[in-house]
Each structure stands twice: as structure tokens, then as C-alpha cells.
Specification:
Pfam families: BON, LysM. This protein is an alpha+beta fold. The protein is 26% helix and 26% strand. The chain is built from 5 helices and 8 strands, in the order βββαββαββαααβ.
């Protein structure tokens, strides 16, 4: 559980069918936050609907997610799927996890960074391939990383 900050100008710009209309990089004009039903459809596209997500609420630029995840990866993917939407700058995670589950570890991509650069910078002993695997399906659907995007740093 916790509050996580994101770059509101960066992320997936979703249309009314929750399809990705465009990827907004940091520095673009900030769009309005999408409606809750659009976000729920987007979660389905990322395969997150089968997780125990009980409740998603959007208020201004904040998404509150209530639910349960069995693993750190499931929890982190829910947080990232919500926060990497253009127009959202805060995710209030009320996702329960089993005792002993490690806290989320995220990194916001800077202009010019590659996964290899990020792997070298972070404290965890990870490779670019580890980062790619830890951020599926987001990186596959969005064609790689972009400035302002937040990604998951897995445990080594």
C-alpha cells in the first residue's frame, strides 16, 4: 500500500475504447485524466482484469486502486498500468499483498535513457533483459521505453 507519483504529461493517451491513441512523452501538454471505465478497459488489455482488483476510482489526476495481489509483480503491474496513463500523476495503492512481499521499486525514465543505462544506475543487480521481462506486457505494447514513463525494477 502507498502513494506513488507519476509524470502526468507522459503515458498512454487512451481513446474511448481504451485503445492507445498515442504515447505522450514528458514535456507534452498535459491531457485530462480518462474516465474510470476507460481505465478498467485498459487494465483488461494488459491482462490485469483477472487479478483481484475490487475497486478503481479516479478523482482529478489521482487513481485509487483497491484489491489484492498474490505477488509483488502483480501489485506493481497494477500500479504501473494506472500511473502510466497520460493525465494521471498519483496512484493511491490500497492493494493488499501477502506478508513479506517486498515494497515496489520504480524508476522514471529520463530522456535518452535505455534499459541498459537504467540497469547500470539502479542499486539492484539487474540487466536490461531483466528489466524488459519485469515490465511485460507494457514494454511490448508500447514499443519500448519513453521519457517520463515509470518502470518496475525487479528484485535481483
Amino acid at each position: 500500500m502507498g502513494i506513488f507519483k507519476f509524470n502526468r504529461a507522459a503515458g498512454r493517451h487512451l481513446n474511448d475504447e481504451a485503445a492507445i491513441e498515442a504515447i505522450k512523452h514528458a514535456g507534452h501538454p498535459v491531457p485530462k485524466a480518462p474516465r474510470e471505465n476507460i481505465i478498467k478497459r485498459a487494465f483488461k488489455q494488459y491482462g490485469l482484469s483477472q487479478l483481484s482488483m475490487a475497486h478503481v476510482v479516479v478523482h482529478d489526476n489521482t487513481i485509487t486502486i483497491k484489491g489484492h495481489a498474490e505477488t509483488a509483480a502483480q501489485r506493481d503491474h497494477m500500479i504501473l498500468a494506472a500511473g502510466n496513463i497520460a493525465g494521471i500523476d498519483t496512484v493511491n495503492s490500497e492493494i493488499t499483498v501477502p506478508p513479506g512481499t517486498p515494497a515496489p521499486n520504480f524508476h522514471q525514465v529520463e530522456a535518452g535513457e535505455t534499459l541498459a543505462d537504467i540497469a547500470e544506475k539502479v542499486d539492484a543487480d539487474v540487466t536490461a533483459d531483466d528489466l524488459r521481462k519485469a515490465n511485460k506486457p507494457v514494454l511490448e505494447n508500447e514499443g519500448g521505453i519513453y521519457p517520463g514513463q515509470t518502470i518496475r525494477i525487479p528484485e535481483a
